[in-house]
Amino acid sequence: MPLVNRGALAVLLSATACVALPGCWKEKDRAPRDPLVFVLAGQSNMSGRGRLKEVPSFPHADRVFVYANSGKWTAGREPVDDPTGQVDEVSLDDNARAGPGMAFGDRMAELRPGAEIGLVPAAKGGSPASEWSRDSSRKTLYGSMIARAREAAAIGRLAGVLWYQGEADIDSLTEWPVFFRQLVADIRADLGIADLPVVMTVLAPGKPQHAARWNRFVSMQASMELPPCTGRVTANDLKVEDEGVHLTTASAVTLGRRYADAMDALAGCGKQAGPASLSAVGESLPGPGHPPAP
């Protein structure tokens, strides 16, 4: 029996899987041309836990690209947070599946005819707010996110950040709003865009046994005051998987489109963004123990 080349077999299986998935675009990977770049950060519902076989086809997928965890541009496909070839181990998520990324990118491409959309996955399942504190090290979630955003924006324009996080902090009713406002200020300072659009998420329904605590946190997220040029969408009316936390594929697609519509509503923000502005902040990101951005 002839020996099988494992590398060739992996490529064949990958191609076969792509054919089988309607949300997987089959054009050869390339870097986008002057893309609008969006960062996708937070916890597992941003990374995605939906069933890949349920991913729909996306009519504008040919203009959606992913700055993959490998540090290379790829054609847009789920899972957007694919861990294959991961460079920054801090954000490695072996459970990444179907999330809101491609639906967001597809809808943004629809709203921006002719534009190419670049997605930068930076989420990490189970990560509490404390792991997103401002830190220059690329070994931290925050530092990795900023570094990857800068790399992706080198060929385009940073256009916004999507944030889905809080499941790990449901008892932090007073601390979380302070954290989020500081996070937005830090991201904007370190990317050199004072009004970079940010869209945050009101959590999806949680497990029944945590209903009282979960609902208090959701109410806080839904009513908290947001910084300028920040939008809010809700996932609280969407269906989750039987385990009680993660969005179904259909729900993730709905959320992705909501993100795009909310980002579109912030279109007047972030206009000064561009590769040149990133060189101005260069190595300005503080390390542990340094003061955050004002």
Q: What does this entry look like structurally?
A:
The chain has 294 residues and is of the alpha/beta class. The chain has a single domain (29-281), classed as Rossmann fold. Helices cover 33% and strands 13% of the residues. The protein contains eight helices and seven strands; from the N terminus they run H-E-H-E-E-H-E-H-E-H-E-H-E-H-H. It has helices spanning 6-20, 44-47, 101-111, 141-153, 175-191, 211-223, 249-265, 275-281; strands spanning 36-42, 64-67, 73-75, 117-121, 157-164, 198-202, 230-234. A seven-stranded mixed β-sheet has the order 3-2-4-1-5-6-7, with helices on both faces. Helix 3 (101-111) packs parallel to helix 7. It is globular, with a radius of gyration of 18 Å. The relative contact order is 0.16.
